[in-house]
Design goal:
This protein is of the alpha/beta class and about 300 residues long. It has a single domain (about 5-280), classed as 3-Layer(aba) Sandwich (Rossmann fold), CATH 3.40.50.720. The chain has helices at about 25-35, 45-60, 75-85, 110-140, 160-180, 200-205, 210-215, 220-230, 240-250, 255-265, 270-280, 295-305, and strands at about 15-20, 40, 65, 95, 145, 185-190, 235. A 7-stranded parallel β-sheet has the order 3-2-1-4-5-6-7, with helices on both faces. α4 links the parallel β4 and β5 (about 145). α1 crosses α8 (about 220-230), α3 packs parallel to α4 (about 110-140) and α4 (about 110-140) packs parallel to α5 (about 160-180). The longest helix has 29 residues, at about 110-140. The termini are far apart.
């Protein structure tokens, strides 16, 4: 175990897990409940959160508080932090697991959805962490485990916003780990490769070479490796041989080659080409006339567009 005082504490310990309704988040909930932790479960899907809470209570008699929240909205995070204070549920450990990605060319995917990736994967993590860290710093114990990805170690054509978000998360975690070191607070980034969750389906990855060729780990195995690494005080955690080998490889493979390999695995060029073919027959987007243009000009443009 690391030197963190939380592991020597007697009495109840509490962990807040985001994205706890399925996948790695649910696996963390089951694992920590098995070790006797009280849980605060956060996700958008309230029904699934209650399911997970019921499972951990039935199997381990664990106390699990359900706090549904849409972490893509800043006001939801503020409301969540307020509820934690009001209900005396401030956690000793925060596991930032919520996140999602989309596969496709950056100029083809909806801009709003790509910005939402940044909102959930980066802004929400930093916001919630900064709100809860002072409590941990005061008690000089506990910590934050951020679920990042191997994607954060390399450029990701075809998943540009997702790779960028995970790179930011790793950098944030490493920097914060050093800042918190004198205060007895652990900060770690867990960097798994592909995992068998709903992530791939939501990201539109089912038919990609990335999913077909690369081995996918089970959520329970990733959660257990991540939790063990966190307890050992490791800052960047690579769960399993594939993750460790990939992480080492990225240090020696030229960046150009990494870009080409990932572009091939995601099929981004084919995705962009299909989009170009599918939209080739559409009329060009209509330009809104400026306010200075006369009404006759505006009506002529509208008639032409029709």
């Amino acid at each position: 175990m690391g030197m963190n005082a939380i592991w020597q504490r007697e009495g109840p310990r509490r962990a807040l897990i985001t994205g706890a309704s399925s996948g790695i988040g649910e696996a963390f909930a089951r694992l920590l409940a098995e070790e006797g932790w009280d849980l605060v479960l956060v996700a958008r899907n309230e029904e699934e959160l209650h399911r997970v809470a019921g499972v951990v209570h039935a199997q381990h008699q664990a106390t699990a508080h359900v706090l549904p929240a849409d972490l893509s909205r800043p006001e939801s995070i503020a409301a969540l932090a307020s509820r934690l204070q009001q209900r005396n549920l401030m956690p000793d450990v925060l596991i930032n697991n919520a996140g999602f990605g989309l596969m496709g060319a950056a100029t083809v995917l909806p801009r709003e959805e790509q910005l939402r990736i940044i909102d959930v994967n980066v802004r929400a993590v930093i916001d919630l962490t900064l709100r809860l860290l002072p409590h941990m710093q005061r008690q000089q114990a506990g910590g934050v485990l951020n679920v990042a990805s191997l994607a954060g170690l390399m450029p990701g054509p075809g998943m540009a916003a997702y790779h960028a978000s995970k790179a930011a998360l790793i950098s944030f975690s490493e920097a914060l780990a050093e800042e918190m070191r004198p205060h007895g607070v652990q900060v770690s980034a867990l960097c798994p490769g592909p995992v068998k969750t709903r992530f791939q389906e939501r990201a539109g990855m089912r038919s990609s070479l990335l999913v077909r060729l690369l081995p996918a780990s089970r959520p329970a195995r990733v959660a257990r490796a991540g939790w063990q690494g966190f307890k050992e005080g490791r800052v960047v955690i690579m769960p399993g041989l594939f993750a460790a080998f990939t992480a080492i490889s990225t240090r020696f493979v030229p960046r150009l080659l990494l870009r080409r390999i990932n572009a091939r695995l995601t099929g981004v060029h084919q995705h962009a080409a299909r989009h170009a073919v599918n939209t080739a027959h559409l009329p060009p987007a209509r330009q809104e006339p400026s306010a200075a243009e006369p009404a006759s000009t505006k009506s002529r443009q509208e008639r032409q567009a029709d």
